[in-house]
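Q: I'm teaching a short session on how sequence maps to structure, and I want students to see two examples side by side rather than one. Could you give me a first protein with its sequence written out and its structure tokens following it? Keep the formatting plain so it prints cleanly on a handout.
A: Of course. Example one:
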Amino acid sequence: MTEDEAALLRWRLILGAPAERHTGPPTGDAVDQDVALSWLYGRDPELARRGVRRGGPPRDRRGGDAPSQLTTVDWLDAVHRLFPRETIERLQRDAVERFEILDVVTDPDVLSRIEPSQSLLRAVLRTRHLMNPEVLAMARKIVEQVVRDLLAKLATEVRQSFTGTRARRPSRFRRARDFDFHGTIRANLGNYQADRRRIAIEEPRFHSRTRRAIDQWQLILLVDQSGSMAGSVIHTAVTAACLWGLPGLKTHLVAFDTSVVDLTDDVTDPVELLMKVQLGGGTDIARAVSYGASLVDAPRRSIVAVITDFYEGGDVAWLVRTVRGLVEQGTVVLGLAALDEDANPQYDRATAARLADVGAQVGAMTPGQLANFVAERIGR
């Protein structure tokens, strides 16, 4: 197959049967790929509204017209055989999140074949109440594997932030992580080469990093467990486990919807913690922040991080008053619209702006960025 023919085939798989008059019909394995894609994306209601049929005309395939005959198990077997890993993960994510194919997480045969991923973990947390004991035991193994992978990834990233507090005095020990970029530029400005527009570095500068004694700080994580925040709930639980027991830091973890549940006792076991989370329901951020405020022991050595989409179902005025009170007593208040790998949030900007106006620091962070923020505060 030539490159042009391969490109046309990819467009045919992307666009479906309506593109065949320009691309020609799929051939070989692409026929089965088209069947698998049609089984999933043919469910899109937008196609029906536009009068578009995602799948191609019936062909002589084993079992008849496969798009209507495939089971979820058959489909999973097919996508694992026909597509690369990255595509499989995307297809599984769309199946459980976009099209809500619940037997992906409630059928034992399906669970035994599916690739564990964060999207599958989110689906497990959303549908746990539909599972019988056998399926729940299998789902727990998926939770354990995904959490184990996340812990391995985040633990190093999070803990590196706490390997010492940077001092502003120079150091003779040359370690990459302590490189003083601005100091090096200032020290070598005399070596600027105008013709090459470069600075020759003759005297690299480094900060010292010490493990000096630090005061005890509190980090109070308040995480919204409404359905839209599933990714942040997962990363918050794992981040809290990574932070637990670090010198100079006492970590609390609280989940909330319209009620508040203190999960601090389960922080060291994020799998057990996540299996207790109840995704969905309303949101009362004010109640959660008020509870968080009651946990503060030393206001000027405390960080209250509220992880939420800021769509407040409770009393917004109470929320603003509580945040203002925390800030005025010297507590750092973080309003995080997302805490995950992407830090790409959807949130109520009006409520977030009101909290920012009374002194909260509002944004989105990855777990590593949160760890750096906390470490910098503790090290001051």
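Q: Perfect. Now a second example for contrast.
A: Example two:
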Amino acid sequence: MVVLVKGQKVDLTKTNPALTKIKVGLGWDTGSNGRHFDLDVSALMVNEAGELAGKEGLVFYNNLKSVDGAVQLTKDNRTGEGAGDDEEILIDLKTISSGIKKVVLAIHVYDGESKKQDFGQVANAYVQIDNAENGQQLHRYELGKDSLTGTGIIAGEIYLHNREWKFAAIGQSSSDGLAELCKSYHLQTSLDFFQKAPTQVEPAKQPATASINLTKVELKKTGDKINLNKTNAPLGEILVNLNWNQKTAKGFLSSVLGAGSSVDLDLGCLFELEDGYKGTVQALGNSFGNLSSEPYIALDQDDRTGAIKGGENLRINGNKITKFKRLLVYAFIYEGAANWSEVDGVVTMKQQSGPDIEVRLDEHRKGKRMCAIALLENVNNETMSVKKVVEYFNGHKEMDRAFKWGMNWSAGSK
């Protein structure tokens, strides 16, 4: 991977003619005081006349895909929490409309002026270009090293020169919003076009009776967070259920795995208790835990085929809320092809006094066997927050590093 500096231009396709699809990742961290920043990456598709190709040529949080399908925004993190890229744009260089000569990559602090936020307060912001087909890291531009200010920046441009695609690291600060930037490329539209819809989390409804819970809350986007219901009574048992659709391998998969091969998907969690005790609960290594003593978490069974209707369940002793600091719920493919789109997994958290909380594994990273699904954290020793993560890793060790758990890992089996 080449680390770029402001003003540097690099080739993308001339020396790598096989490169057709790239991923542009934007990442940043919360501030030192835990302050959240909602950064938004936008891709402006510009023609030879220097004009934006209409509203459809602006790919951003209110228009996730260009008309030709070549440019697509796939992630929108509104806080900066979590490891890896917070927002990603996929670009198919071969299918970009012939009239488009460059794709301008802009980043804005959403509603930065009213929040009194700018890039000078954002930590560790970067733009990275990867080969979207094999995951190879190509170029990285560390924005934080250029002391950028303002609420908006033009991070770089992917442009066509002598029929080859190149990238220029620009790092140009601006105090103008996305609407003003679009005007500079001759696109005039109403401000309503740029108003971001609020994060949609279904409100919890009152159950029909005290003993039956008919409601469900789905955390739809990475970073969405909700607290377990807080009552005067103890939390009671929290059930974390993993279920997936076991599909028979077909076509190419069957030739690799053998006809009828199944995927063994395992549920587990990393835990950190208030006394500093850290560990994992999972079938691998026969670490099934204990519900009545530390770590107050237990895995009830190991479904190796996906055929068990109830799936796999982690049980968390919510009555011991003061003992917990944080938990990271994850799933990993122990056996079978590392193709999450074939799994169609869903994790449901059931609580005694509130709605079910559902997190779907709706983003897929083929080839990576480990998925961090949800982060649970202690809230004032009264309840726990649940945040959707859905990030993919090569294994336990890589996931551990990303979430700074600090454990030592060795190979295991079951």
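Q: What should students look for in example two?
A: Point them to this: The chain has two domains: 2-194, 216-402. Also worth mentioning: Helices lie at 112-115, 178-184, 251-257, 396-402.
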